[in-house]
Amino acid sequence: MTRATIVLVALAALARADDAPPLVTVHAAATPDTTTVGTRVRYEMTVSAPPGVEIVVAQPAEKIGDLDIIDFGTAPPANTPDGRVVFKRWWQLVAWTPGNHLLPSPEVRHRLPGGELTAAPRDDVGVTVESLLARAPEHTDIRDIKPPDPIPIDWRPYYWGGGALAVLMVLALLARRFWRWKAHGTVLAPPPPPHLVARAALEALRARGLVEHGAFKEFYSALSDIVRRYLEERFRVRAPEMTTEEFLVGTARDGRLGVAHRRLLGEFLTESDLVKFARHLPTIADSERAFDAARRFVDDTVAADAAPPAGRATA
User: Fold this and answer.
1) CA quadruple 125, 131, 134, 136: dihedral positive or negative?
2) Alpha helices in 185-258, H assignment, sequence order
3) Are residues 273 and 209 in the same domain?
């Protein structure tokens, strides 16, 4: 072995020694990795970290890559023999177009106590989606004649009868309300709109001075409850009974919230969950930012029929 070869080998060994393993590792897997259009694929992401490291995992609201999210879940944390903590999340995905699809792993960030959030290395995987016709070309051949269709039932008399019954029920309800109003002689005032109730609750929360006294968990719990009650009254969704992930996926499917509002709400609810359940200790600046995000979300999502006319100030 020449002197130059010995020097190159030594430099390579030093380079390998300097490449320390990452503090947090991410491993993703798709089962099966070859499927057909419309068939579910289980996508699982495993995060391994030392004890005491705070982990923040981004939650996709609609898709991972080109595949739609139809279900998701989280497995309880587990400890490995070498003392590391393993977190697992899974998603059920469906592809509607054949081809090779790349599934980028959701962003995973971590930090040590008192440190800054750092992104962990991603682990992207691929899934091959095949066409059902390509797998079974014989299905395109000429088939036997179908049997005759059964004689359809004429449902129109039933529709007319049901419609007349519904009209009678509505008239009876209106008449009952009219007579009750006439008997009492008063009309109850309508309840205040949800955004005014939420604003009043936010101002009452600020007046309590929880952040100044260090009661961050109580502050974030109260702030999260105000936003969830506003979501229930404004969008008719059972927000207090849903987890953050369930609510984001649900509003993404039915389009009740835009992308910008879902992103703002997802960041706020995720930070609130960290304080309430993961013992995350925020700063006063974090608390002010969360309060401003809640107030901005309420102001930006006021119903069109509840907005004040031009030239008038809001409450």
Assistant:
1) positive
2) 194-208, 216-235, 244-254
3) yes
